[in-house]
Write a structure and sequence with these properties.
Length: 353
């Protein structure tokens, strides 16, 4: 059940945010009400109704590289909380991390970690990814237990490694090694299936009430900005940026078919490397990601069930970040939080349509 009051507030916030320019989005984030989400409920959500499952996929930035600390370093989560007074809902009255007791997170494929949602579900225990902001948004909007299953591996392209079945032209038996088209996606699906088929093992509070795959979350695209030379040539003749849109459309359809949820909401974020300076193959990928969003009208079947959020306003420069690793958004926790929150908002909007 969606909490109507919460969702109404979210819609109002979304309308306000649409008018924010790229240049001012990050600057205004301290005053942005979305950074002041309500505290999670004091009691757990109902454990009688089926668990709402959200499957989050991508490459390394879904794994998560936002630094949690120290609070003295600009761009860390602790810095934003302690110095800039953002994301206060992540702490309890004593100033400690406050786990959500209604959102369980399981990380598979790359690493193995499970528990109630709180900082520490990134690629390392002192990192965060988009799961944190996303989980808080959907956890507040849904009056049922939520399970976020995160599956991702770094340095993977939709144009080859994560290629959906409907896009594949070379079957495994025809490829000279085991790294066939879509190999990584097949592994993602297998790992998610293992969780769903062994719920009690991965989700100890599960009481046999059943589950529903309620939606998909996608954030990926760094490796698709360019294509390896050997892939551009015969027998493949593939350009990762130029085929991204076709592959993304097929991914949405194929994942829904695989998990038998033909109309499940699908939300995604654009890549955002260098913010509004993104160009070349990266711009091609971002435009492809925006093109599939249902409200654009290019794919009528996606209206009301696919939503792309624009992540470029959340790029933070090296000067206000823990590192200069641009491919990991300079390890800035604010980027991962804000993208996650927007993905969660988009999901809650689609869930009530």
């Amino acid at each position: 059940m969606i909490r109507k009051k919460t969702f109404t507030a979210m819609c109002l916030l979304a309308a306000m945010i649409l008018g924010i320019s790229h240049a001012s989005a990050v600057e205004k984030s301290n005053a942005d009400p979305k950074q002041q989400l309500p505290d999670p409920d004091a009691k757990s959500s109902s454990r009688v109704r089926p668990v709402k499952v959200f499957i989050m996929m991508g490459q390394s930035n879904v794994l998560g590289y936002g630094h949690v600390g120290p609070e003295t370093e600009k761009g860390t989560l602790e810095y934003y909380i302690k110095k800039e007074k953002k994301y206060p809902y992540l702490l309890d009255a004593k100033g400690d991390w406050k786990p959500r007791n209604d959102v369980w997170c399981v990380q598979v494929t790359s690493g193995s970690h499970k528990g109630w949602l709180q900082p520490g579900f990134g690629n390392r225990r002192n990192y965060i990814g988009p799961e944190l902001g996303f989980g808080y948004m959907v956890g507040d909007a849904i009056d049922q237990e939520v399970l976020v299953i995160k599956t991702a591996v770094g340095n993977r392209a939709l144009g080859w490694d994560i290629m959906p079945p409907s896009s594949r032209t070379i079957m495994p038996k025809d490829h000279p090694n085991q790294w066939y088209q879509g190999y990584q996606l097949d592994a993602y699906i297998k790992d998610v299936g293992r969780v769903l088929n062994n719920m009690k093992q991965y989700y100890p509070s599960y009481q046999g009430q059943g589950y529903e795959v309620a939606g998909f979350v996608w954030w990926q695209g760094h490796k698709d900005q360019s294509t390896p030379d050997h892939v551009l040539k015969p027998p493949y003749n593939i350009s990762y940026p130029d085929t991204y849109e076709k592959n993304l459309v097929n991914l949405i359809k194929d994942l829904r078919k695989e998990f038998k949820v033909p109309n499940a909401p699908f939300v995604l974020a654009t890549i955002a490397f260098d913010g509004n300076k993104l160009g070349g193959g990266g711009l091609t990928v971002a435009n492809a990601q925006l093109a599939v969003s249902g409200e654009k009208g290019k794919y009528p079947q996606f209206k009301g069930n696919v939503k792309t959020i624009e992540a470029r306003p959340y790029w933070r420069a090296r000067e206000v970040s823990p590192s200069d690793a641009g491919y990991h958004y300079n390890h800035n926790a604010g980027t991962y939080m804000d993208v996650g929150v927007d993905l969660g908002r988009a999901m809650t909007e689609l869930l009530v349509k």
